């Protein structure tokens, strides 16, 4: 007995509608799959260094150690601050040059490879060390962060 692939015959409007639906959904699915490595809860474990100019002092930066950075597809949150609609724009950079030109910082204390994947999240950046460790650049300070819980969703607001 032959297998029926489609119960109804495909006519031109159905083909166009199916093609449009596929084309419109594909970028959203690809974006989620492409960012899955960063989505989740990350614990800030230590202050690594700071750039020449920062919005925090050393004490304020030290207080962030132990805080949880939540990276979700639609927002980033850390210590009560939220950034909506992160970009997740990724690029590979020469570590020394990038840190010198973009953050006015040296790379020595960050323990990064010669070339690093930088992910722009709109309100901040992360530099990927490996699958379970990132360097977070937050308000002029560099923090080491380790994965605590992959694929985190933002908590629902309580009424």
Can you describe this structure?
The chain has 3 helices and 9 strands; from the N terminus they run αβαββββαββββ. The protein has a 9-stranded antiparallel sheet with strand order 4-3-2-1-9-8-7-6-5. With 159 residues, the chain is of the alpha+beta class. The termini are far apart. The protein has one domain. It has helices at 12-35, 58-64, 95-103, and strands at 40-50, 68-71, 75-78, 81-84, 89-94, 115-120, 125-130, 133-138, 141-150.
Primary descriptors:
Lipocalin-like domain-containing protein, 3 helices, 25% helix, alpha+beta, signal, 159 residues, 9 strands, nine-stranded antiparallel β-sheet
Layout: helices, strands, pairs:
Layout: H1 12-35, E1 40-50, H2 58-64, E2 68-71, E3 75-78, E4 81-84, E5 89-94, H3 95-103, E6 115-120, E7 125-130, E8 133-138, E9 141-150
Antiparallel strand pairs: 1-2, 1-9, 2-3, 3-4, 5-6, 6-7, 7-8, 8-9
How would you summarize what this structure contains?
By secondary structure, the chain is α+β, with helices and mostly antiparallel strands. It contains 3 helices and 9 strands, in the order αβαββββαββββ.
Radius of gyration: 21 Å
Helix percentage? 25-40%
Q: Please list the strands of the largest sheet in the order they lie side by side.
A: 4-3-2-1-9-8-7-6-5
The parts where pLDDT drops under 50 for at least 5 residues are 20-31
Helix/strand structural class: alpha+beta
Instruction: Give the ordered list of helices and strands.
Output: HEHEEEEHEEEE
Percentage beta strand: 35-45%
């Amino acid at each position: 007995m032959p297998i029926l692939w489609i119960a109804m015959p495909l006519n031109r409007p159905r083909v166009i509608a199916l093609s449009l639906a596929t084309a419109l959904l594909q970028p959203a699915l690809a974006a989620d799959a492409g960012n899955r490595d960063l989505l989740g809860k990350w614990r800030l474990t230590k202050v690594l260094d700071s750039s020449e100019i920062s919005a925090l002092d050393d004490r304020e930066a030290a207080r962030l150690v132990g805080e949880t950075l939540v990276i979700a597809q639609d927002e980033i949150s850390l210590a009560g601050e939220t950034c909506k609609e992160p970009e997740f724009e990724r690029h590979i950079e020469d570590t020394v040059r990038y840190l010198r030109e973009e953050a006015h910082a040296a790379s020595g204390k960050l323990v990064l490879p010669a070339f690093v994947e930088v992910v722009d999240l709109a309100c901040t950046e992360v530099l990927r060390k490996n699958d379970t460790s990132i360097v977070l650049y937050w308000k002029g300070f560099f923090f080491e962060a380790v994965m605590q819980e992959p694929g985190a969703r933002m908590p629902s607001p309580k009424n």
